[in-house]
Amino acid sequence: MLKKFFFLILISVSIGFLTMRIGLNSHQSIAISIFCASILGTLFFWDFRLSFAFLGISVLLLTKTTNLENVIKFASLEVILFLVGMMVLVGQMKAAGFFAWIVQLILRIRNMTAYKFVIVISFVSAILSTMTSEVVSIIFMVAAVLEICDYFEVEPLPFIMIAIFATNVGSAATVLGNPIGILIASKAGLTFEDFIVKAFPLAMVCLTATVALLLVWYRKPIKQLEANIKKFGANEMLVRLISVPPEKELKISLVIFGVTLLFIALHHRLELLWGLEPNTVLLIMPLISSGAVMIWKHSKAREFIEHDVEWWTLLFFMLLFAQAGTLKYTGATDVLARNLAGVAGNSPSFLIGIVLWISAIGSSILDNVVLVAAFIPVIQSFQGLNLNLHPLWWALLFGGCLGGNITLVGSTANIVALGILEKERNIRMTFFKWFWVGLTVGLVTTVFVWIALLFLPIFL
Amino acid sequence: MVKKLVILIGISIGTGLLSRNIGLNAHQAISVSIFLSSVLGTLFFWEFRLTFAFLGTSILLVTETIDIDSVIKFASLEVILFLVGMMVLVGLMKDAGFFAWLVSLILRIKNLTSGKFLIAVSVISALLACVVDEVTSIIFVVAAIIEICDYFEIEPTPFLIISVLATNIGSSGTVLGNPIGILIAAKSGLTFEDFIFKAFPVMLVCLFALILVVRVWYKKTLAELDDKIRTFGGNEILIKLISVPPEKELKTGLLIFGVTLLFISLHHRLEVLFHIKPNTVLLTIPLISSGLVMAWKRHKARHYIEHDVEWWTLLFFLLLFAQAGTLKYTGATDVLAHRLAGISGNSIPFLTGIVLWVATIGSSILDNVVLVAAFIPVIQSFEGLNLNLQPLWWALLFGGCLGGNITLVGSTANIVAIGILEKEKNIHLTFFKWFWIGLTIGVLTTCIVWLALVFLPFYR
Questions:
Q1: pLDDT class for A14, splitting at 50, 70, 90?
Q2: Cβ–Cβ of B55/A288 closer than 8 Å?
Q3: B459, B186 Cβ separation under 8 angstroms
């Protein structure tokens, strides 16, 4: 551990010196080397990454690289509050049995076949992760998959992987799927409608490609499942065993969640109608709904805030955003942007490729929020160079989400799902068992996005 | 509950309309009535007060009374992060057994007499409340009192009341004692040294007055304790039973805490020395220490953040600060400040009296953070009128802390201590049993502060 620690400091400091050499000023170098330390902190010391965020921000403040006002400004409290609100809502949905209800809908599919099953779990995973968040969605999908696989006595691993891949792909489709969605939306000024019109169809294409690919890749386990289904006589028993009718509480929760989604979907129009600043409605809608939920379930209000909100992660995000903001404040990202643009010869299509592939490959190793937080100020700096930023934002979004499929630590959904698998079934995943299929899926979907961003006029 | 809700909405809207009539513009009236509803929310619906903060902030944003950038600015994230850092440190101290050790020190006083016990309880309560926060301190002092009183078979209530009164007085002694301390320091530019030189001595005088009064007030109880001590032959057995030597972990914890306090107390000098902006060091020191603590105790890092940090309260503060900021942003507090200055004829002693007594009486019913958050922009507005603000800040601090003694719901420490008494000993305290002693102490100490602020040239 001590070794890793020295390694971390050594790399950060030497990157600082290196950037000094290539012409950045001292504040820019400090900002880069602190940010680098935070990134390496998440890589090496995942369990206490917050330490590095705390210390890093303190160093930035004490060296006058940034100041309190900027820390506060860049910490993006509005994004954090949005996530708090959504987490409370999802907590209520969980408590009301929404996810259990979805799971039993899958379990009760009539005339189940293996193909049907694969297609259903992929699409349900993807859609759930676009509406709630990928982590919540994968927890329940894993539960459903394990249940079915136990019933038919097949190995659950391939089907779990299918659900994970679909979850990661699906999380790119809307603002709600992934923290990077709301982060990009609020910084880029993209609306929910933009996501629905542009990101959603593209994500669906990627999903279809993923499913097709996985049907071939896992043809053996699927055939096995098919055989077992025939042998056991489908899931009639299961259908009869489980029939959870939606309760009143669930119905009310669904209405609240539905109305929230509706308002979020219409946020841009409402803002125009009422003459509000961009994204105001988007950001406060979850606050209003979660406020309403906390009045309704007032005896559980405190529990929602303390247990359903992931404070550990949110606090890390906040400080990370502030550190990434420092990169912008010191002008380090402007330099980087100019150099990138120089390399790309101001050709947007070349830049799109760079952003897409760097974020895809980067987020296969790093937390995608870390990567996107660093990239946002770079892309904002391109604005000064008179480039069209739209395709770059989409490249960042898709790269960040799709790259998560490449390795088994690529996204939080992967880590959570494999953790459950280990705990419940004692099945351990090896790096390479994941890597080949993950790489294939990651590469194929990223290439799809690349082609779409370059050639479809809608993204230009 | 519905009735209370209707009253809350009725009063808020009524006040809004009223303030519109006396010449505030629409946005000012909205900000006043929203803030009022949050205040009433804490009064009527303490368990889910956050709801009102959520909904209120949303309304402010939707009505364009304030914009998102200003919400973020006024939310005072720096104060919140300071509190997060301190809470992590206190969590560590709790884990390391600091408080249990302190309790054992009280239990092991040699040749115990009732007078000694009274003084030990009050002084330790006050000093502990100065360095950690009042809630943590009261929990452990109450534990010690119940232990001793059980041993000597006397009623713990009088001593418990004394320790709560001392805790509230003590919490005004430094920046760390009470959330309003750091809030006032951050907004007024007062340093830790200012607190030590100006607030701490006054606090000690108030504490002395408290000890004198309760000696007379609880004469009978004290005599009874002396009797029991004579019959039981002192606490020798208790001394022998409990002897907690400070462990290595505790020593390290104490060292970290001590160094933190040292740096915090030197923050102003360090800032001047290194030309850093005011309060930057003050606000970053807890982040550095807690960052180190989390690296040291890395298995518990997540636990500290999730369980020792009171997110429910902090989130409420965040939104409350934003709402109080809206009062300033719309100019409502400027109007109020003008009026107040008009009434007082720009006389500082008169204004000091008003602020002190309004804060004292207000915080006997309300959470003192709510009150101080509302008052801060008013006092800031006086600046435009060319008035010396120093005595007003001290008046606000002392009023907010000392007023908490008047009723049994006046401060969080009271509520927590009474809760413990109910749970452990099944003793229910009535409003009036608290009220008379509380009122006497509250009025007496506030008078002391008033005299000091008006007559000592030091505070001008």
A1: very high
A2: yes
A3: no
